[in-house]
Design brief:
heterodimer, A: mainly alpha, B: Helix Hairpins, 68% helix
Chain lengths: 494, 112
């Protein structure tokens, strides 16, 4: 019942807000923030009590292959923590940020459904529910991207809608193939049936490209990235933080890992595809980010690049590589959502996102400046910030796997990362000759400042507390990867 | 006969995909997405098909039933793709109000 709360609570709050909006159309922020805070504290509680085990909730008491179940294992728990951390902080941020938009309650209702969908995907125990929650995420984010109702918002939203729907259909087609072979929709049951069958059925080999295509579209790996640089910058800043920090990871990377590692079993070819897709994404994203002049657009391309690191880590195929990838999921969620909040604050204070028109903001917006420093250092991988450790572990895993050339190229890619974040810092915050451009701006309101400070401390804390993070969160999650299709045997007995 | 319907469900999916990729008019793109959805639905119906089987209703002398599970899934996918279509059409109305055109090759506010 405890894990069902993660899905039920946001939906109940959203329904309350739908009724409450008729009485008072202005509020809703506090209820939303309280909901996310409860979810965050529950997920932190679970971090300490789960301890590498599993938790299963059967709806209505029906056992798994017949009934529907929710499953929580260590990897789900890592994602659950990331989701609820980022959603809690971004809801805190949006209490003040959303004040210059109309129909605020609708914003919070959509966000609550987004959170419910995200929690649902990582907890879903059967593949059809996973698909349904993916659709909930998709619809909520389509609407949230179009929330500003401007020309750009509508265009970005319709592009994302078209591409996202195609991705969903591909995933659904793949699910059909899996079902036609195994006759089951329960993840653990499918995994068990595939594990016990003597030879690989060809229909499963046919299902894998469909699922890979669909999830890569959702994760914005490079050949399928076209929607991301439009969709993420045009959304309101807290939504951008959610989209870049959590949504692409949950609907893309979590799907890939859960389906391919735990259910169908992973082959060396598939690992190589992930490795090189990640590698291309890293360089493509970083080069494209260098040529942008829109603050949030640089960050969106940077997201493509950082997702590439995670895919690369998974594609190495060793426990060290998985640990690096998982750590990078955590770190990227912290620093990229913080960076989007910084971009939102700059937009809030000055009214523009074009970095050519900005400059010398370090004195006018000290808190924002400090937050941007913290996230930049984590993004560039400077010790002792969190980003250093995850990138270091990925490099180490590459060297240990014997891929020396690749590891040298990845080290060179850090220079590109350094270049685009220095471009942001130099043009937006430092460049002193432009300091008279905005004489009357003030530091952003309290809730936005508080949210940025919490996330900045988180970026530093993930680095300083690295041994504990590794011990409490990462280690047990790596076992899910290494166990592979043993997942079915573990879960189906519970 | 069975193989032919499998192939046709694929063909329908690919026709829809072709329509989405090639056409510029937003309404035609949305129609393409619906065609893709129908292709997937047809595939699910074919999964549950068995020759000489009857509808999954328990009768005394019947032995061979079709699989009821995909039939139960199809309404869900239809609802989801219907919702997607409505959201897309609503967005297209807003886009038309702003740009006075539905040609995606002319709607280019976002670059880079």
């Amino acid at each position: 019942m405890l894990i069902f709360t993660f899905i039920l609570l946001p939906i109940i709050s959203a329904l309350i807000l739908i009724l409450y909006e008729r009485i008072n159309s202005e509020s809703g922020s506090l209820i939303t923030f309280a909901t996310t805070l409860i979810n965050l504290s529950l997920s932190v509680l679970l971090l300490f009590i789960l301890n590498g085990g599993q938790m299963v909730y059967h709806f209505g008491g029906w056992p798994a292959p017949i009934g529907i179940s929710l499953v929580l294992d260590s990897f789900s728990l890592l994602m659950l923590f990331v989701i609820n951390l980022v959603s809690c902080v971004s809801m805190l941020y949006s209490i003040d940020y959303i004040k210059h938009y109309d129909s605020r309650t609708k914003f919070f209702i959509l966000n609550l459904f987004l959170i419910a969908g995200l929690n649902g995907v990582v907890l879903a125990g059967d593949i059809f529910n996973l698909y349904v929650f993916l659709e909930i995420i998709a619809f909520a984010s389509y609407a949230l991207i179009a929330f500003g109702l401007g020309k750009e918002d509508m265009e970005a939203s319709i592009r994302y809608q078209v591409i996202g729907t195609i991705g969903s259909f591909f995933i659904f087609f793949g699910i059909g193939f899996l079902y036609s072979v195994t006759g089951s929709l329960d993840l653990a049951d499918i995994s068990k049936i595939i594990y016990q069958s003597a030879s690989t059925n060809r229909a499963i080999l046919f299902a894998i490209p469909f699922l890979l295509f669909g999830f890569s579209l959702k994760a914005a790996l490079v050949p399928f990235h076209a929607w991301l640089p439009d969709a993420h910058p045009t959304a309101p800043a807290p939504v951008s933080a959610m989209l870049s920090g959590v949504v692409i990871k949950v609907s893309g990377i979590y799907g890939i890992v859960r389906i391919f590692f735990s259910v169908t079993g992973v082959s060396p070819t598939l690992l190589n595809i992930l490795l090189y897709a990640g590698f291309i994404s890293i360089f493509f994203g970083a080069f494209a980010a260098l040529y942008q002049n829109d603050f949030k657009r640089i960050l969106a391309y940077s997201s493509i690049s950082q997702i590439g690191y995670i895919m690369l880590g998974i594609g190495i195929g060793t426990p060290l590589g998985y640990a690096g990838a998982l750590l990078h999921i955590l770190n990227h969620a912290a620093f990229k959502s913080l960076y989007f909040m910084v971009a939102g604050s700059v937009d809030y204070a000055t009214g523009t996102r074009d970095i050519r028109k900005l400059g010398g903001l370090s004195k006018k917006l000290p808190v924002t400046f400090l937050a941007s420093i913290s996230s930049s250092l984590s993004l560039a991988g400077i010790p002792p910030f969190g980003g250093f450790f995850s990138k270091f572990i990925i490099i180490l895993a590459l060297v240990k796997a014997g891929k020396i050339t690749l590891s040298i190229l990845i080290i060179l890619s850090f220079l590109l990362t350094l270049a685009y974040f220095l471009k942001i810092q130099g043009k937006v915050f430092l460049r002193s000759q432009n300091s008279e451009l905005y004489p009357n701006i003030k530091e952003v309101p309290y809730s936005m400042r508080l949210a940025m400070i919490i996330m900045a401390i988180m970026c530093l804390g993930l680095g300083l507390g690295f041994p504990w993070v590794l011990k409490i969160i990462i280690n047990s999650a790596v076992h899910i990867f290494s166990n592979g299709v043993g997942y079915g045997n573990i879960i189906s007995g519970l | 006969m069975g193989t032919l319907i499998y192939i046709s469900s694929f063909l329908l999916f690919l026709i829809g995909l072709y329509c989405v990729v090639v056409k510029n008019n937003l309404i035609k793109i949305i129609i393409g997405i619906k065609i893709m959805g129908y292709g997937v639905c047809l595939f699910y119906i074919m999964i549950s098909y068995k020759s000489n089987a009857i509808a999954p209703i328990v009768l005394k002398d019947a032995k061979n039933y079709t699989d009821p599970y995909p039939h139960a899934i199809i309404p869900a996918i239809m609802a989801a793709s219907f919702a997607a279509m409505i959201l897309m059409l609503a967005t297209s109305i807003r886009l038309y109000e702003k740009h006075k055109t539905l040609d995606m090759s002319k709607i280019k506010e976002l670059k880079g």
